[in-house]
Amino acid sequence: MIEVKNKEELKRMRAAGKVTAAVLKQMTELVKPGISTWELDQAAEKTIRSFGATPLFLGYYEFPGSICASVNEEVVHGIPKKDRILKSGDIISIDTGARLDGFCSDAAITLGVGKVSEEAQQLMDVTRKSLYKAIGQIKPGRRLGDAQHAVETFAMQHNMGVVRDYCGHGIGRNMHEEPSIPNFGKPGTGPVLEEGMTLAIEPMLTAGSYKVRELDDGWTVVTLDGSYAAHFEHTIAVTANGSEILTAFE
Ligand code: MG
User: Fold this and answer.
1) What is the mean pLDDT of the chain?
2) How many angstroms separate the CA atoms of 197 and 235, rounded?
3) How many structural domains is the chain composed of?
4) CATH code, 140
5) Host domain of residue 143
6) Is the model's pLDDT at 249 over the cut of 90?
7) Residue 101, domain member (yes or no)
8) Whose CA is closest to 40, among 16, 17, 57?
9) What is the pLDDT, as a whole number, of residue 9?
10) Residue 214, domain member (yes or no)
11) If we measure between CA atoms, which residue out of 215, 210, 214, 238 comes closest to residue 225?
């Protein structure tokens, strides 16, 4: 069952969303050559706690960070590390979340470090746009498959791989709620959207094959062919006329 939030619950979802949005904004300011992914994590945790919120990822199945920091061929779930120093030409996907007043938010962004290749820039641009293509499909009465299909089609048009092993999800009192939201699907299929549903939509695209594997650290997911990957995510609420992005910071 997909939970529908009432006005009061949406208010709290919105407040939780602001925390995660603030972290993403902070990351856009901090990411540059020479900074470690551990420093980014520490800064993120500080920001989350400054709102009186709790980092959603820290301790989740014993994950050691408040952000996932996935560099280049890493797709998701990269562990922040002191010796992972960003350098010009890298791209970094930062995924983070917060719990405030019993409600969760979850969002991700991929940022270029210094000067990145044209190919990497295109990967980031297409992935970001694919997220907004999906969000553009969200409206009461539409089906979730419409949004999933929008990501898939846009990615395929640009010859990007669509990661199939990880997907978006409902979100609310828990980080992961029903439904599961793959980044591919058929229009006119899947659950019918209703006002008050809150969803985390998160396209993960690659510049090569969609195939991925998990490293021995039990967390980091990388592309099988070593191609770069990008990841953009927002927590959104279905509204009467469309949707509201709860983790918007731009
Ligand atoms: Mg998520």
Assistant:
1) 98
2) 11
3) 1
4) 3.90.230.10
5) 7-245
6) yes
7) yes
8) 57
9) 98
10) yes
11) 210
| Residues counted in the chain | 250
Whole-number Å distance, alpha carbon 199 to ligand 1 midpoint, is 9
Q: What is the DSSP letter of 191?
A: P
- How far does the centroid of ligand 1 lie from the alpha carbon of residue 105, in Å? 9
Domain membership of residue 250 (yes or no) is no
Largest CA distance in the chain: 49
In angstroms, the CA 38 to CA 81 distance is 5
Written as six digits, the tokens of 58 are 């820290």
Per-residue 3-state assignment (H helix, E strand, C coil) for 103-148: EEEEEEEEEECCCCCHHHHHHHHHHHHHHHHHHCCCCCCCEHHHHH
Distance 60 CA to ligand 1 centre (A): 13
List CB contacts of 72: < 8 A, sequence separation 6 or more: 90, 91, 228, 229
pTM: 0.97
Please indicate, yes or no, if residue 1 is contained in any of the structural domains: no
76 C-alpha to center of ligand 1: Å?
10
pLDDT for the residue 184: 98
Q: How far is the CA of 108 from the centre of ligand 1 (A)?
A: 8
